[in-house]
Amino acid sequence: MRTLAGVEDEDKWLAEGIAGIQHNAFFMHRALDANNLREVLKYSALMLSELRTSKLSPQKYYDLYMRAFDQLRQLEIFFKDESRHGLPVVDLYELVQHAGNILPRMYLLCTVGSVYIKSKQAPSKDVLKDLVEMCRGVQHPIRGLFLRSYLAQVSRDKLPEIGSDYEGDANTVMDAVEFVLQNFTEMNKLWVRIQHQGPGTVREKQEKERNELRDLVGKNLHVLGQIEGVDLEMYKETVLPRVLEQVVNCKDKLAQYYLMECIIQVFPDEYHLQTLEALLAACTQLMPTVDTKIVLTQLMDRLSNYAASSPDVLHEFLQVEAFAKLSNAIGKVIDTQLEMPIVGAMTLFVSLLTFTLRVHPDRLDYVDQVLGACVVKLSSVPKLEDARAMKQVVALLSAPLEKYSDIVTALTLSNYPRVMDHLDDGTNKVMAMLIIQSIMKTDSCISTADKVEVLFELIKGLIKDLDETNAEELDEEDFQEEQNSVARLIHMLDNEEPEEMLKIICVVRRHLMTGGPRRLPFTVPPLVFSAVRLVRQLESQGGDIAGEDAPATPRKIFQILNQTIEVLSSVPCPELALRLYLQCAEAASDCDLEPVAYEFFTQAFILYEEEIADSKAQVTAIHLIVGTLQRINVFGIENRDTLTHKATGYSARLLKKPDQCRAVYACSHLFWVDDPDGIKDGERVLLCLRRALRIANAAQQMASATRGSSGPVTLFVEILNKYIYFFEKGNPHITPSDIQSLIELINNELQSDNGNTTIHSDPFFTSTLRYIKFIKQKGGLMGEKYDPIKL
């Protein structure tokens, strides 16, 4: 038994062993040169006696073994040449058995046995059976392992397999398999026994050393996988049961894990598929400490790749009911290994789902079954806190999204949202973003209210605060990105049938209204525009032709819109709400719904009066109101007068004079619409322009009083351009004399401001005069109209 020693001691013992091998090898080579068989056997036995040491670790012992192995190759060449030693190989086989110690004797016997088989003077199976039985005489774990490894190495090319030079009569393949299996069984027993060598205090070191020796055992399985003539029936009836029996019965964590890994890697995929039940049964019988999830994962990966290799093999998976067997085995492993961490169970489910999606992509019931099993396991855990397990759950949920280009397919999985419910808020949001990105990537259209309901349940982490304590912790930039993603998603919801589309809008609205004041400004606008698009679709199909009892009518949609925007205006977000009211008013006008359009304008004016206090926001709002009102032609005289009066009144009450002026002259367009049926009230246009002119004059005077100069004449030039516009449109109340007077006024303002006779220094004014001059030179009817104007 190897005693505990330092690295220096082991190095010393190794050096001594190598020196002993080299010393005896020298005399052996001298005897070889002299063809002296007796001396060759004597010194080769002494050389091989150095391998009897128990002081070295497996790694050091391997170094020593390789020195001896190199010498054994020279010895084998000598034994092959009968003319050199003068002894028949049969007699030589008997002679080496008289070596004094069993270890040198067995090495010499294996070497001569190799020559004996090559000579074909005895059947290969008989010699191999004799050798594998006699090797049982060496029971020291490390020495026995290396001896049997040598036997496996020298016999590899001499097995009586089909097609080899040593093929025997019937059952020749079985003889080769029996030899390898017997050698494997004995090597595995020796390997397992190493853990019982020495005191328990060095168990960790022993496990490391055993791990270094595992390939010696595994090589036997590689040989089994390469033997010609091992068909599926033989593998199923003989090879696999014998190997699995050894794996299960050894009751050793390291051996069970490594050997199962070897089985999966060295034997063909189609064999695994046809013997799946036996493999999985063995997995459920492994020691609880064995990492079974990796074994099962490797098996499922092999089978998945096999299924992907050719469509022709898929029917085999159905015949053997691969999914059901894998699912049951994974369930048993998870149930029996009570100490398996949650991340292990999730890893198994991910592998099973990957297998299912690759082998049975059309069986959504299988996919949902895997997700359901995951839900059951997650339900047994109070709270999922392991970050690695969380990552596996995300991988589980992402797999269907990546597999099915149509996200709608994933939405039919009933257990999908139940798995998401077990994620924490942060991971839930990550998963929701992945779902939206998948929809955008595949350009999927969600077209039914039921599927929209499921979808919004899945992404509820983005729509509302799942945990109030985390509501304010999110980075503002990340928050905006999330909400913009939800907004983009709303535009992917569509259905050609108005009734179903209205249901979709109602489902989305119900979910969005729970979002709180931070989210509504992002999510309400796309919902409003989606509803307005439906209104225009209905209007193009004939509007309310179906009557008020129809499921989807513009009036019903506008009622929903009014309630939705009202919620937004109370957030408060008045500027956005005002814009949306005006959009709805324009849509109502297109549907010829005057009362509805008037109501939306009323709401817009109320917001302006009560909520919008910022002067810049007021200017923007007035211009939006005027622009929208100018485009609407549904109003009767009374309603239009009321609204235009309000608009002009608000324009004149803006804080800054320049803003007042621009808003008032913009209102002039409310009285002159350039359409065949549009209003054309030239007198009120002129009143607006003159009012704007008075405000501009007041602004100039204020500038002169406060700054000492009247300032730029931009407002006058802008009003001049309005005069020119309406003059060209044929407003009879705008005369050439009005334009002439305004030009002179601007010239005077420029002269007084500059203090000299230089005029036309304002670029805008210069361009305007150039335009008038161009029209006059162009001639025609319009040129004649401009003739009275003198520049």
TrEMBL record:
Which keywords annotate this record?
Cytoplasm, Endosome, Golgi apparatus, Membrane, Protein transport, Transport
Q: How is it placed in the membrane, per its record?
A: Peripheral membrane protein
Cellular component GO terms, alphabetically?
cytosol; endosome membrane; Golgi apparatus; late endosome; retromer, cargo-selective complex
Query: Quick check: keyword Transmembrane in the entry?
Result: no
Q: Which domain of life is it from?
A: Eukaryota
Q: Does the keyword Cytoplasm apply?
A: yes
Major place of residence: cytoplasm
Q: Name one GO biological process term.
A: intracellular protein transport
TM region(s), chain numbering = none
InterPro entries on file: Vps35
* Record localization: Cytoplasm; Endosome membrane; Golgi apparatus, trans-Golgi network membrane; Prevacuolar compartment membrane
Q: What does this protein's UniProt record list under function?
A: Plays a role in vesicular protein sorting.
Give the UniProt family note.
Belongs to the VPS35 family.
| Entry protein name | Vacuolar protein sorting-associated protein 35
Organism in which the protein naturally occurs: Arabidopsis thaliana x Arabidopsis arenosa
Give the taxonomic lineage as stored in the record.
Answer: Eukaryota, Viridiplantae, Streptophyta, Embryophyta, Tracheophyta
